[in-house]
Amino acid sequence: MRPHELPEIRHLPLFRDMQHVHFETLMQGAYAQAFPAGLELMRQGDPADFLHVVVEGAVELFAQWGGRECTMAVVRPVGTFILAACIRDAPYLMSARTLERSRIILVPSSDLRSVFRRDTEFAVSVIHELAGCYRSVVRHAKGLKLRTSRERIASYLLRQSALVGNVASYTLPVEKRLLASYLGMTPENLSRTLKTLEADGVKLDGMRVIITDRKKLTALAQPDRLIDGPDIDGHSSGASLPPVRTED
């Protein structure tokens, strides 16, 4: 493991309050590995042997059923997945694959569970992390069930702008095919719907989002704190798409 990676992992909300001796125990049993793009890291139904910590690259979490597939989340540095299965010693409910060359720290789940039982602050952090993931999933489910496809896209684009200071233009943090899958749509449906949104104050130029009329877009999206969030000091890992990055 590289020297600079330990402080980055230690700074994660999941690990930052735990006793130092217990953090060292976890890291002694962990190891780093580099993976090429497009590699399947784990498959849904497999036993949860490791907590994965992404320190470089990007990982897609996805699910499959009946010949269909959907994107559940995209994890970028520094982020973890899938904590719930590791703590419960249960099979993974999602599969994971690298979207680009990635470096990942693998923490044995058995060590994680052992420290969870001995370190109160770590246990509290685990509960907060899982609660954040749960609330993120509930919000996403509400959006899928209560909003039309146009409203879902408008809400997503507007919220990404709000997360970086209500900018009028930014670059999508993920490919359009991943965004479409995450929002419960086909890429073709996403493209068609985006064209109709030009009259509602937003357009795309490649991967660049341009908000031309925030008032119109807000009227369509109807932002709702109980769907769009965020929680105060909320944090979730591996439960959504990554936010837009600020640009220089």
Structural description of this entry:
The chain is of the alpha+beta class. It is built from ten helices and eleven strands. The chain has a four-stranded antiparallel beta sheet. The model is unreliable at 234-238 (pLDDT under 50).
Could you outline the blueprint of secondary structure elements for this entry?
Elements: H1 5-10, H2 20-29, E1 31-35, E2 40-42, E3 50-56, E4 59-65, E5 68-75, E6 79-81, H3 83-88, E7 95-98, E8 102-108, H4 109-118, H5 120-146, H6 149-163, E9 169-171, H7 176-182, H8 187-196, E10 202-205, E11 208-211, H9 214-221, H10 225-228
Antiparallel strand pairs: 1-8, 2-7, 3-6, 3-8, 4-5, 4-7, 9-11, 10-11
Helix pairs in contact: 4-5, 6-9
Could you give a quick summary of the protein structure above?
By secondary structure, this protein is an alpha+beta fold. Helix content is 42%, strand content 22%.
